[in-house]
Amino acid sequence: MFRVLFVCHGNICRSTMAEFLFRDLAERRGYGDRFHIESAATSREEIGNPVHHGTRRVLDRLGIDCSGKRARQMTREDYDRFDLLIGMDHANIRNMNRIAGGDPEGKISLMLDHGGRPGQEVADPWYTGDFETTYRDIMAGCEGLLSELTEQTEEHD
Prior knowledge:
By secondary structure, the chain is of the alpha/beta class. The protein has one domain (2-156): Response regulator (Rossmann fold). The protein is built from 6 helices and 4 strands. A 4-stranded parallel beta sheet has the order 2-1-3-4, with helices on both faces. Helix 4 (90-100) links the parallel strand 3 and strand 4. Helix 1 (14-28) runs parallel beside helix 2 and helix 1 crosses helix 6 (131-156). The longest helix has 26 residues, at 131-156. The termini are close together.
């Protein structure tokens, strides 16, 4: 089983959307049993809070249930527990490296590096209010990541 952690600043908008979209995409394509997916924050600001209403609206429209999800902060132990840790923007990557104490195994990457847009950041709806652009960015990253990971796992089957 491949373990993926999606990370953003507060774990109520982008990383949560990525967690639930990736899980749904993997399940719909028959790969749900190959992945363990979670999300976390780099900050402590939203710990314990539910999914932002804008993200919840996008997921509800797609028939994806995110009830029960509460924001949590990434820990140093997450670096050891997960195979891949994916940040939404450059500030997330810097903070993830700080929390993890570096990235000696090359596990940390930017979401859109997997979506065919290397170095680009996922739009932050906390500031823009535009959850549709964020959805499109995250879906591009999720589809690219799922393709990458299923090709890897099929090579090892």
